[in-house]
Every structure is written in structure tokens, then in C-alpha cells.
């Protein structure tokens, strides 16, 4: 195996560790959210980013209270992030903010004063 191939193999595990660290930061931040603190949201890899899904306790979206997607966080260039909210009526993701740090995106998600993420 040549040096370039070895270097590429060494970078992949390091990148995965950083990705998992992002997931841990998201999970930890969600413990401090303002809405529906009594349910446990699920955080999982989705495409290039992270999907946050949660039981719909208000039953505004799912009358049975089933799990609904609430946010999608996607890393962008330069350590910045894109934060999307789910438009449940249209069935699509809507960009909430772009070019923010992960901490800023998580603050928006956890505070959610206009109930855009946790309907």
C-alpha cells in the first residue's frame, strides 16, 4: 500500500470520531431544551448531518403522539452549520439559519420561542 493510501485510511477514523463528537454535543444540548423536557428525543445520522426526532406530545402533528422529525443539522464549510426545521404540512425541510456555529444552532433549537421545531 502506498503512502497516500495509508494517509487516507488514517484520516477516515479521525473524521468519524469528530462526527460522533458532534452527535454527542447535540444529544447533550437537547437535555437542556425548553419544550417537552419529559420526552427523550432521538438523534441519528441523516445524510451529511444529524436528524433530531421526538415524540409529538402536543399531538398537533401526529394525533397518536408518534415520533416526528423536528430538526436537521448539517455541517457546512469552516466549522459552520445549517439548521433546518420540519414543515410538516408540506412534508419538507425549511432552512432556519445558516452559517452559525453548532452552539448557536443548538441554542435556537433548544429555546424555540416560536415553536418552530417542537410544535
Low-confidence stretches: none
Helix/strand-derived category reads: alpha+beta
The helix tally amounts to: 2
Arithmetic mean of pLDDT: 86
Q: Assign a percent range to the helix content.
A: 25-40%
How does the major sheet shape up?
Answer: 5 strands, antiparallel
Let me know the number of strands: 5
Measure the end-to-end span: 53 Å
Shape: globular
Total number of domains: 1
| SSE string, helices as H and strands as E | HEEEEEH
Radius of gyration: 16 Å
Work out the strand percent: 25-35%
The strands making up the biggest β-sheet line up spatially as 1-2-3-4-5
Can I get a quick summary?
32% of the residues lie in helices and 31% in strands. It has a 5-stranded antiparallel beta sheet with strand order 1-2-3-4-5.
Overview of the molecule:
There is one protein chain. The termini are far apart. The chain has helices at 3-30, 102-111, and strands at residues 42-46, 49-55, 67-75, 81-87, 92-100. It has one domain (3-111). A five-stranded antiparallel beta sheet has the order 1-2-3-4-5. Helix 1 (3-30) runs parallel beside helix 2 (102-111). It has 119 residues and is an alpha+beta fold.
